[in-house]
Amino acid sequence: MKIPFSPPFIDDDVKNEVLSALESGWITTGPKVKSLEFETAKYAGIDHVLCVNSATSGLMLVLHWLGIGRGDEVIIPAYTYCATALAVMHVGATPVMVDVKEDFNIDPEKVRAAITNKTKAIMPVDFAGWPCDYNALFAVVKDPNIKSQFKWKGEVQQKLGRIAILADAAHSFGAVYNNKRTGSLADITVFSYHAVKNLTTAEGGAICITMPSSFDNADIYKTLRLWTLNGQTKDAFSKNQTGGWRYDVVYAGFKMNMPDVCAAIGLAQIRKYDRAVWQERKRVFEYFSREFSNDNWAQLPAFTNNDSQCSYHLYPLRIKDITEDLRDEIIERISKAEVAVNVHFIPLPLLTVFKDLNYRMQDYPVTYNNYSREISLPIYPQLDNNLCEHIVKVVRSAVKETLEQ
Ligand SMILES: *Cc1c(COP(=O)(O)O)cnc(C)c1O
Questions:
Q1: Residue nearest to atom 2 of ligand 1 (CA)
Q2: Which of 56, 82, 172 gets mutated to test ligand 1 (max ligand atoms within 8 A of its CB)?
Q3: Alpha-carbon gap, residue 168 to 211, rounded angstroms
């Protein structure tokens, strides 16, 4: 039985919504994108969301808007996907990596220790969909001692008066922290709607704009939207209406807008997200945790406490007391049984681009320890309980064979 790692969730509603975009006579940024922005905002319990063509470009755009560039530092976890760091590098700033905690998320005390007078932002990552400790992170950036050494540059930073928290929520659409949904937890949050994420538009991202009350978030939405469309005052949709031809270009903007054909996929999914996606991922996650709680070699991932809930994006199983080589052997055995698994992620300091910049794995021991024992199991709505049972059997025997050889 072949089990793929992460096929997209495509049902008749998705097909019909995409067909409706194709037949409407308008396929790029227009009414479907507006609707997806509205639905995303409603879901997160906020007012202003801007859709873009990827989370990576969304993060770059926000960093740029925050006035972050050459000479500035942005603190990120060492345990994340490369895009978190690359977005920082693409605006000319330096990613400063810190270690994570046992739950895979950035360690607020390590963040505190890494702050210098060049630090302009922190980019926490809700790993696997488990929200970071945002209360602790805000306590750090609002600490009077830390605020007093903040050196602002430009209007936005001056108004904020402290280090910004820009959440990389690529994994955590639908997660809850302190009874609030992700998207509402940081100064600005960016979701990924990439094909393998919980909610998808094939490629895409959403910027949730929730700056403190001294900012006009509606106005930020308008500004950022211009930036995604070459800085052009009238988008192609408006120009397509009669009499709407005249426009100006007010910034040297980027091209980061989401097409309507893509938005249609996400729009059909978001309307039934809780029932058809989140609940079903939760079912699979709980199935695995229930089963593996009987295995003393298994270390189960965090998923809920009193006021937090995972988005169930990944199932990052860890095997206790094994080496990276043994973990790799287990994966080989699982793969031979045709169950697709992955490792999330290869820590940034092990990748050539970051090694060449002198980041060193030994500086992030918890990251390495988590990584060396991690195997991500398939988790998606299409996995019924029989398939889950099959995956558990395959994983169990792969671990047993490896440990007992
Ligand atoms: C997927 C991912 C991204 C990038 O998302 P794109 O939409 O593909 O740009 C960023 N950060 C993390 C942690 C991710 O997993």
A1: 170
A2: 56
A3: 15
Question: What strands, in cross-sheet order, belong to the sheet with 374-377?
Answer: 298-299, 315-319, 374-377
H or E element at residue 52: strand 49-52
Q: Which amino acid is at 248?
A: D
CATH class of 273-404: alpha beta
Give the CATH number of domain 12-270.
Answer: 3.40.640.10
237 CB contacts (<8 Å, ≥6 apart)?
A: 26, 28, 29, 30, 31
Q: Ligand 1 pocket: which of 81, 191, 262, 343 to mutate (most atoms <8 Å of CB)? A: 81
Residues 297-333 pLDDT 10s: 999 998 888 899 999 999 999 999 999 999 999 999 9
Assess whether the region 12-270 and the region 273-404 belong to the same CATH fold.
no
32-54: average pLDDT:
98
Q: How far is the CA of 344 from the centre of ligand 1 (A)?
A: 12
Task: Name residues whose C-beta falls within 8 Å of residue 37's C-beta, 6 or more positions apart in sequence.
Answer: 49, 50, 51, 206
- Identity of the amino acid at 216: D
How many angstroms does the Cα of residue 35 sit away from the middle of ligand 1? Answer: 22
Task: Quote the pLDDT of residue 305.
Answer: 86
pLDDT of residue 306: 81
Atom of ligand 1 lying closest to residue 344 CA: 15
Lining residues, ligand 1, CB within 6 Å: 54-56, 80-81, 83-84, 125, 168, 170-171, 192, 194, 205
What is residue 259's three-state secondary structure? coil
Residue of the CA atom closest to atom 13 of ligand 1: 81
In the chain, where are the structural domains located? Answer: 12-270, 273-404
User: What span, in angstroms and rounded, lies between the C-alpha atoms of 291 and 282?
Assistant: 14
Q: How far is the CA of 191 from the centre of ligand 1 (A)?
A: 8
3-state SS track over 163-212 = CEEEEECCCCCCCEECCEECCCCCCEEEEECCCCCCCCCCCCEEEEECCC
